[in-house]
């Protein structure tokens, strides 16, 4: 299926127009409720998404322009292509997606494609395989805020990461990329086989920095401007979806329908709504539904990624399939790990009951969102996590190469 042709079709234009009309109707139908819902969306964006994402988007843009990601990709390329069928730059995009959350991986993949370092197909696969929710959402917002147990957020984070990696591996083995051997990165690695890998990595890093050619001041300004623009797009989508969801639920206030709509459309509101199911569902099932919703990550997240990949000419076919697999794996893994985890940490199980459960049908209250002090604490933790994940992947790749040489 040609997704770019579909995006330019009259059907796509009609759907876009209908969505725009729907937003206007929502605001006219209930202006007061729409204003309240947009305020909730703004609070989520400002106190969760903005502090968790902006530093990493800026850092990613600067490291890509400085050539660091290209040098790292050269070292990892033999390993990632053999195991995952992806270029070595996945060694930067994956840790970035795991620690910063969406749409940081899509932004990095689009930048690599614009630089000519990966093909459009590789950029699509990079963005889909490295798409994860932010650890701040899982550990601080859901674990500490919604449930009252940070360790439960850590369980969700571990399952979220494992399920995402399993989904990426599944897509690689079921739908391998036949054009991987003809990519620019692969060609550069094979045209100079006599050069040691470390020296080749330094050379590619220097070439990438020279090709960019911007001074540090110019690079910093461009990176901040690009990061803010990406976050403004993300915030706009979140505000619109918060308004549409709120008005839809005013017309159809059924509680089960409310949970389904929020979970399918926007992950922050959806995870809060699922947390409210705790009194009526077994804890293991509630946790599994949360895991599945986080794996899907919502229609809002898909449109955020599409807004980044689409203008660059990158498709999103594998992205949707990856999201479905991620959700399915997360659901199954959470069910499998629930009993062992509650034996190791017994306090998690009672956290899903009592009067503290969020009321069904309400939007996320500001009281459950992290303050700026918590956000900066999590940001520091994310930076350490990003560093450890990169060095971990690099160590595995070098050990793999040493075993192959022997």
UniProtKB/TrEMBL annotation:
Query: Which Pfam family, any one, appears in the UniProt record?
Result: Gate
Specify the Nucleoside transporter/FeoB GTPase Gate domain's residue ranges. Answer: 48-142
Question: Can you tell me where the transmembrane regions are?
Answer: 12-32, 44-69, 89-113, 125-146, 152-175, 239-261, 281-303, 324-341, 381-400
Q: What InterPro entries does the record tag this protein with?
A: Gate_dom
Keywords of the record, alphabetical order, are: Membrane, Transmembrane, Transmembrane helix
Protein name as annotated = Nucleoside recognition domain-containing protein
Source organism per entry reads: Paenibacillus mellifer
